[in-house]
């Protein structure tokens, strides 16, 4: 299905803006001025970004930033969600995509959850033939998804 990246993102981010505002988080979007239309599965794409944004909002403390960036490079769509103020311990990173795995947060950002969000994201990314990477260090966490697309 044909997807207009700008339309898709603005609709999606609008729904998260309210939530970020309510938590005093700063939501920042980086998207090219005129991204090409792409061919992909809109439901899967939406679910992937919704889950990543949901986590970012959930684990980011007030007054910190969440940055969503989208880029189209050759035949890849690159989606990145970075959030500040919440680090995943290196020892937990290998398990982060496992079903029901959750990091035990001892601090006051402790949040409820099932540990299924990232397992679903990984499954959808694989189904679309893409890859997902996570980096977490020095108080920031980035999930980077790259998906093959037809421009
Ligand atoms: P649910 O899927 O029900 O929201 P969850 O958030 O615990 O539950 P996952 O989305 O699978 O489950 O995430 C697994 C763990 O990874 C979380 O418990 C959390 O500790 C950590 N995590 C995920 N995303 C982030 C993030 N953006 N920043 C910091 N920690 C994160």
From TrEMBL:
Residues 1-151 form the Histidine kinase domain. In the N-terminal section; belongs to the phytochrome family. This is histidine kinase. The lineage of its organism: Bacteria, Bacillati, Cyanobacteriota, Cyanophyceae, Leptolyngbyales.
């Amino acid at each position: 299905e044909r997807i207009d990246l700008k339309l898709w993102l603005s609709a999606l981010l609008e729904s998260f803006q309210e939530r970020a505002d309510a938590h005093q988080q700063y939501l920042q979007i980086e998207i090219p001025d005129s991204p090409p239309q792409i061919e992909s599965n809109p439901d899967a794409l939406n679910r992937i970004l919704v889950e990543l944004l949901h986590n970012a909002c959930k684990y980011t403390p007030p007054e910190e930033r969440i940055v969503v960036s989208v880029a189209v490079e050759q035949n890849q769509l690159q989606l990145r969600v970075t959030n500040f103020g919440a680090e995943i311990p290196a020892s937990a990173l290998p398990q982060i995509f496992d079903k029901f795995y959750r990091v035990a947060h001892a601090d006051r950002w402790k949040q409820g959850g099932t540990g299924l969000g990232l397992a679903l994201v990984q499954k959808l990314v694989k189904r679309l033939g893409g890859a997902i990477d996570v980096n977490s260090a020095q108080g920031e966490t980035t999930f980077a998804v790259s998906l093959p697309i037809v421009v």
